[in-house]
Amino acid sequence: MKPLSGVTVIELTAHVAAPACPRILGDWGANIIKIEPPSGDPFRQQAPLFNMPYTDEVNPAFDMANINKKFVCLNLKTAQGKEVLYKMLETADVVVTSYRTETLKRMGLTYEELRELNPRLIFAQVLGYGEKGPEKDTAGFDATAYVARGGLLGSINEKGESPINSVNAFGDFQVSICLASGISTALYAREKTGKGDKVTVSLYHTALYMMSIAVVSSQFGNQYPKSRREVGNPFNNTYKTKDGRWMVVCIPEYDKYFNKFVTLIGREDIIGNEDFCTIGEIYRRGNASKMIDIISAGFAHKTIDEWMKILKENDFACEKGYLPTEILEDPQAWDNDCLRKLTYPTGEEYILTTTPVRMASVGDMEMKISKPLGYHTEDVIKQYGYSDEFIKRLG
């Protein structure tokens, strides 16, 4: 039995951050019922933005956040649609929503109202900026609340260069993991108290937490963005290889491994050189940028594959800057079930990422692709005691 078997999650979400959370809970055994309006989750139509195919049968972009769910279509602007939702929520364990608080108030679906309906319910909400402050009612997306206001846009580019064009939904998937952890904790607490709880995660706060070192250290003068020529340790830096590829080297103990590392890059002539061999001296003497130039020149003589082999054989942490197309062929990803091939009804196979939290009791999670809008509506509603005649009137 999976850890969340018997837990029913009602999902009132759109786009990525909130839907990706129930996907994780579904991996752990929860029964996920995704409720969409007649227009559907807008993300069903987003695939062309990523150069991906989409039809009712093939929609890998939508699947990324919507694996292993049941799909119910309800018009919550009608009395009948809202009646069915309330009926579901009376016995549900969790409701996950990305609706803004003002919208929930208009719909009669606030935490306070649902707590009266079902005191055991875990109410989980994804917010843009949080529950308080001047932006609490502002529309928030990954690109704005997370990447821009959260500090990534202004921090992780090369100093003096233009801002990054961040990968779509980068923060959304991190939010989903945070919300799943909060829901799981609330479910555990409910076993002891019998009472539900309210769990919120915002894109903005999640970004600040992920950027903790940059945010906290900034008050002491550690400023971002940084130049690769101004790093604190030349052995923790990015370098370009002979074939034009970039890689990162991470050797925190500069002084300890100086002689060994400079030997690998063909600079035995500076072994023990007091101008360069300790962190303290290279900065006291203003030689950090010179050391970076020395390393850069060394890396320019060999290809990325040659450097990866040399450094890993010497137990130095390093990696090339993988392209997504290279990740699709990475044996490390396949051996650890980070990637999975799924066969669609058309017979085509496409690769999707799996969720990262693994439990021995669960093993490799099952992945059932998404279904068209409203695919499970009739079957699910019947389980709540509604007749065929009612379902026909529901439309």
TrEMBL record:
Record keyword Transferase present: yes
Name by which UniProt lists this protein: CoA transferase
Pfam families: CoA_transf_3
Alphabetical keyword list: Transferase
Keyword Transferase applies: yes
Gene3D superfamilies reported for this sequence: Crotonobetainyl-coa:carnitine coa-transferase, domain 1, formyl-coa transferase, domain 3
PANTHER family per record: E-CINNAMOYL-COA:R-PHENYLLACTATE COA TRANSFERASE LARGE SUBUNIT (PTHR48228:SF2), SUCCINYL-COA--D-CITRAMALATE COA-TRANSFERASE (PTHR48228)
Gene Ontology molecular function terms on file: transferase activity
